[in-house]
Amino acid sequence: MGKNTLMRWCIKVHAEKSGNQAYLSCLPLLMENVGLIFTKEDLNEVSEEVAKYKVGAPARVGLVAPIDVVVPQGNTSLDPSQTSFFQVLNIPTKINKGTIKIITPIELIKKGDKVGSSEAALLAKLRIRPFSYGLVVQYVYEDGSVFSPQVLDFIEDDLIEKFLVGLSMAEKVKEYLKDRNKFVVFVASATPATSAAPAATVEEQKKEPAEESDEDMGFSLFD
User: Which of 37, 96, 179, 207 sits between 20 and 30 A of 109, alpha carbons compared?
Assistant: First the structure.
């Protein structure tokens, strides 16, 4: 982790000294709050380990809630003079042994809503830090290529399935290449569905000599 300009400089220096230009593909990715993790271990295990490290964060005013925030039922340890905070948010309470007790769990903030000043103040008083921050894998780099982290979600069965689908499509392409008539029929059958030529235009084309028609086109579909 470090300043992006410093990380870019390190990669460029390494490329110049070692002659290894592969890491230069990482330069466009070094934007905003990012870091680099170098590993020889299994990438899935590394991704899972990174996801474990999160820290709690308070609900600040104006922040868009990434999750639903629920205030739990139970004693708050707040004295009765602070009942107004709960009344503003329509949270049912009662006084129990000199402290405020929340009667039922309340969904205070819904995912996607902005945190208001009253919600933020109440959560701060209850010492509830509903949100969390941590590292998220954004890209996967290997041998000069950059991939989406979604590649880590693929299991062996998924790869085999996609490979078999590719093979089935390749066989169809081979059939068209072996028999050009199949390919011509395919194109001709698709043309009327997309647009129909006016009858007058078709008649005019029939009147043209074959030599002029070939000269106008200048190419064949399979040349």
Answer: 96
